[in-house]
Amino acid sequence: MRLGARIFKTGLAVTFALYAAMWLGFEVPAFGALAAFFAVQPSVHKSLTLIWDQIQANIISAVLAIIFVLAFGHEPFVVGVVVVLIISINIKLKKEAIIPLAVVTAIIIMGSPTDDFINFAANRFMLIMIGVFCAFIVNMIFLPPKHENQLYHKITDTNEQIIQWIRLILHHEVDYHTLKQDMKKIRDSVIKLENIFTLYREERSFFRKHEYSRMRKVVLFRQMLSTTKKAKEILKSLSKHDNAVNQLPEEMSQLLQLQVDYLTNYHERILLKYMGKVKPQSTEDFYEEINNGKHQLINVFMTYHSDQQIEQDDWIHFLPVIALIIEYSEELEHLDRLVDGFFTYHTEDNEVKIREREMF
């Protein structure tokens, strides 16, 4: 089991909220801790953008809770009606992310009210806001997320897994039962990659100079993600049309293996280049080899089709694979140019903030 930074931040925010509530003399500090738990965000940017929404949502929840308790009491069905209203209002305002905290606020205020209900509600509301602000402070100061580092290593891990399976399929050494299990893991990895990229893209720098550099890296990582997804599509297509691949003539099969090997090696070198392990401009030799291989693959494929050496059904099934390989090569060339441009221009601003993994 791995304990990430967000888990530690959540624990820290809860602890901070408990101590703050106790220090300020509140009778039930646990409510502040509960609010802190719901208010912790995965990024500094989300924390900044949601803090005002959280304050507004809590005020709305508190006002509704107070009005309904004074008008109708605190029976369970009244609490249910208020919860429905709070959810509906936040959905209407397109603030679904803060619904859990808003609902918790209403339930805490409406639970077991005393005779002096206004003071009771104000006390509970202040407790909740203490939890929200404690979570905000922790989000801003402690353990800020390193999305660039996470994104790069997640991309390289996913690429390594995809490329491994592509090579096994082309060399007819694949176990399809294991591949089917790993395909689900790869799909989940790509979804997680998209989520991390979204968090990275939403980050903001306080200095314009740093923000320009960060946006250049956002473009780079968007293309890295696009290239990884294209490799996944090739893997999916090869596994789906494996019978057609196995029926290819020997020359066509060898040429396909050679071209895909070139492309996957090229992909790995580009990612290493971004880490500084391969010199900029060092992949230029791949351009000519890949371009020649691409044209040769198309020419041989069309020749076999014209001579009717490939069955019509096999040709129809295998054509999407050829198209994906061509698209993959174009995505890689675009990514390579972006990486070269990143290290060629604005070199005083561009900085790669990726740490090597610890070796055990």
Automatic annotation (TrEMBL):
<dbReference type="Pfam" id="PF06081">
    <property type="entry name" value="ArAE_1"/>
</dbReference>
<feature type="transmembrane region" description="Helical">
    <location>
        <begin position="125"/>
        <end position="144"/>
    </location>
</feature>
<dbReference type="GO" id="GO:0005886">
    <property type="term" value="C:plasma membrane"/>
</dbReference>
<keyword id="KW-0812">Transmembrane</keyword>
<keyword id="KW-1003">Cell membrane</keyword>
<dbReference type="InterPro" id="IPR010343">
    <property type="entry name" value="ArAE_1"/>
</dbReference>
<keyword id="KW-1133">Transmembrane helix</keyword>
<feature type="transmembrane region" description="Helical">
    <location>
        <begin position="12"/>
        <end position="39"/>
    </location>
</feature>
<protein>
    <recommendedName>
        <fullName>Aromatic acid exporter family protein</fullName>
    </recommendedName>
</protein>
<keyword id="KW-0472">Membrane</keyword>
<dbReference type="InterPro" id="IPR052984">
    <property type="entry name" value="UPF0421"/>
</dbReference>
<feature type="transmembrane region" description="Helical">
    <location>
        <begin position="97"/>
        <end position="113"/>
    </location>
</feature>
<feature type="transmembrane region" description="Helical">
    <location>
        <begin position="59"/>
        <end position="85"/>
    </location>
</feature>
